[in-house]
Amino acid sequence: MHAAAESRVEVGLSLPNRAMLFGALTWPQMLSMAAVAEQSESVGSLWVGDSVIAKPRPESVVLLSAFASRTTRLKLGPACMASFNLRHPIVFAAQWATLDVISNGRTILAACIGGPTGPGAGAGAYQTELRAMGFEFSQRVGRMEEGIAILRRLWTEDRVTHQGRYYRFEGVHIEPRPVQQPCPPVWIASSPNPALIGEPRFHHALERVARLADGWMTALLRPEEFAQRWRIIQDLAVDAGRDPETLTSAQHIMLNINDDERTARTEAKVFLDTYYDADFSEEELSRWGIFGSPQRCADALQDFINAGCQVPIVRLASWNPLGQLAVCVEAVLPKLTTRTAV
């Protein structure tokens, strides 16, 4: 029998870049948050949100490039890249390879199909975004799958000719090549609605991760739901002839730390309603985040880790993100552990 030893978990810090548009965060403050994360032994990655028209914010690749020049060890990525399908894969392959070079091989690309699919906050804006870019809503999945395949070919092959459904080109070669070989990791962000369980769309969303991705990012799940979906993805990876141990799992989680849980929840709701131009219900808020004392936040994050989440990615839903980050790295993150055999 092997004894089990506890080791520290490295979490991701998601910077709320959209908050720069409504005065909750400035660019110098974002740089300060990145510096705190870089110095913290508990933070292993830095993430920014992504959208172009539907949910405007400072552009993600430009931001990540800036953070690449200000950090030396943190992994860097979008949480998640909702605009992936809006970016031509040849141009984007060159941009991402350059970012990987600038960061010395620290990028993680988390692609997704985009915004909401039904009624609710953001759905209309996302439809407008697709129309403005000349894309059909029904093309989202196909464009993402084809785009991921093209990126990997452009990063590894000398002259690429591609004749696909959405993209066609001949003899394309890009330089520089990414530092990470053969390719930077490509995750897929997927959070199919729990109401779709049992429907083909639900299965296909998880199967896509198992078949194509190096990792899975999700949100809005409770720990038991996370564990269930992660087991499904791992089983589907085996069915696809892949080793599930090579896949990474992550959940994007909102956090507000305050000994008064009601105050924490109230501030988080005001912040998130403003951030997403929404009106979150108590149920939605509970799915989206963790609110309360440092111990309460640590315990709830630990529940996700115990459910199989390898990279909890936290965003501080607060009008004082620097103050919250200081409490987070001092009183929350050091409490988190994972179990590894020794």
Please give the number of β-strands: 13
Helix content: 40-55%
If you compute it from the alpha carbons, what radius of gyration comes out, rounded to the nearest whole angstrom? 20 Å
Taking the sheet with the most strands, its summary is:
9 strands, parallel
Global geometry:
globular
Head-to-tail CA distance between termini: 10 Å
| Order of secondary-structure elements | EEHEHEHEHHEEEHEHEHHEHEHE
Look at the helices and sheets and give the structural class. Answer: alpha/beta
Looking at how many chains there are and whether they match, the oligomeric state comes to single chain
- Number of H/I helices: 11
In terms of DSSP E residues, the strand content is: 15-25%
Mean pLDDT comes to 92
Which blocks of ≥5 consecutive residues have pLDDT under 50? 1-5, 117-121
Question: Could you please describe the fold and organization of this structure?
Answer:
Mean pLDDT is 92; it is low at 1-5 and 117-121. Helix 3 (89-102) crosses helix 5 (140-156) and helix 7 packs parallel to helix 10. This protein is α/β, with parallel strands linked by helices. The strands form three sheets. Strands 2, 3, 4, 5, 8, 9, 10, 11 and 12 form a nine-stranded parallel sheet that branches. A two-stranded antiparallel sheet has the order 1-13. The termini are close together. It has helices at 27-39, 60-70, 89-102, 123-133, 140-156, 200-212, 223-239, 261-276, 282-288, 294-306, 321-332; strands at residues 4-8, 11-15, 43-50, 75-81, 109-111, 160-163, 168-172, 186-189, 215-219, 248-257, 289-292, 311-316, 337-341. The protein contains eleven helices and 13 strands.
